[in-house]
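Changelog-adjacent note: as of this version, every example in the card shows the full chain rather than a window. The one below runs 303 residues end to end.
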Amino acid sequence: MPSSAGYLAVAIVIAVGLFFLLWWMAMRSGDEAPWLPAGLAASVVLLVALSAREVVMRRAWNRYLLDNGINQKHASSHSSHSSSRSRSQKKGFSASLHSAALRTIQKQSTTADLPGSTPEAHLEVAHLCHDYLSSTDEAMRSGRLGSEKGIAIRAGQERVRALHKHHLLTWARGQSRVLTHEAQQRARTFDKIETANKALDCIDSVSRVYPNEPELNESKIAIGEFIASVKVAHWVELAERSVFKGHYRRAIDRYRDALFYLNQDVVKEDVRVAGTERIERQIAELQSKLRPVSASRNDADLP
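Full-length structure tokens:
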């Protein structure tokens, strides 16, 4: 286990150093209260450092329980009586550590399911479940477990697998919603699409673990529809600008680009039909405006 005192000392030194650096910079810039932004920044750094250590140490402790409680080797004995007694004590100790690791996961699961929890809390529980399953699978393959303990571990694995699926799906749903909402607030089209693609990456990463999940497929379709709508709106806006400037041919080309993205499979049928009719009507109006211009040019070319 890493030294808590050493970690805290380093974190405090970094926070104090940042405080004096920002305080000096604020003094040079003429700030009336240079200690305020410096103290705020130093406090944030210290809080982040403490929170990060809490998360890392929680996972490390759970891993320690699993590795040392389930996969530990039997100690050599000095006599037949002491050997039997030692194995009995070690078996009880391993079972208690196994139960403690399982209780830790269930406690974190309950906390993550509370209202107002963040998607990261569910992802952390999913990581704990993955570590638990990896360690117990290794212990089961080792063949050093008795029948009773093997049954207990299998029962624990079933509960943890259910928790792993629940929290991983919950994380994918929550994180994709956060990213999709963030994409909607973006101003530039490129930023909207890039942020929405991050939401798709979340869905795809979980789909590789749990393929053919209806919830994931529905989320993926919804995000795909959003990306397509952003692209269609972008090209329609460019076409309208071209119409305003009198560049009708360019506007027609941009409307056709919008039709390309509108006719993708991810777009719903009713939305596709309504949008296609509107854009084709705009194209027809622009083509009718181009005909008199072309006719007048041909008349001007006649002798």
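Structural remarks: The chain has a mean pLDDT of 78.
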